[in-house]
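Hey, I'm writing a tutorial for new members on how sequence and structure tokens pair up, and I'd like a real worked example in the thread rather than a made-up one. If someone can provide the structure for the chain below, I'll link this post from the tutorial.
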Amino acid sequence: MSKKQPTRSYAQKVNHAAASDLPKLMNKLFGEGQWFFDESEGLHIAKDPQHSGPGFGFVAVRLDGTWFKGVRPDGVLQ
């Protein structure tokens, strides 16, 4: 038996709920003071606790509640 995939409207509802208070969500997920807000990009950014390779692994959450992960190589400045 396969699990039913969430509908787009369900995902939108989850994103909306998360976006309603992103600082509170970031504190709960990553710890108070363990994330920052990049005003120029409109992103809440935290170190990815699952990243164990080289570079800086991060999780970025957009203002609408959608998110993505990435890795910035060592020695790259922004």
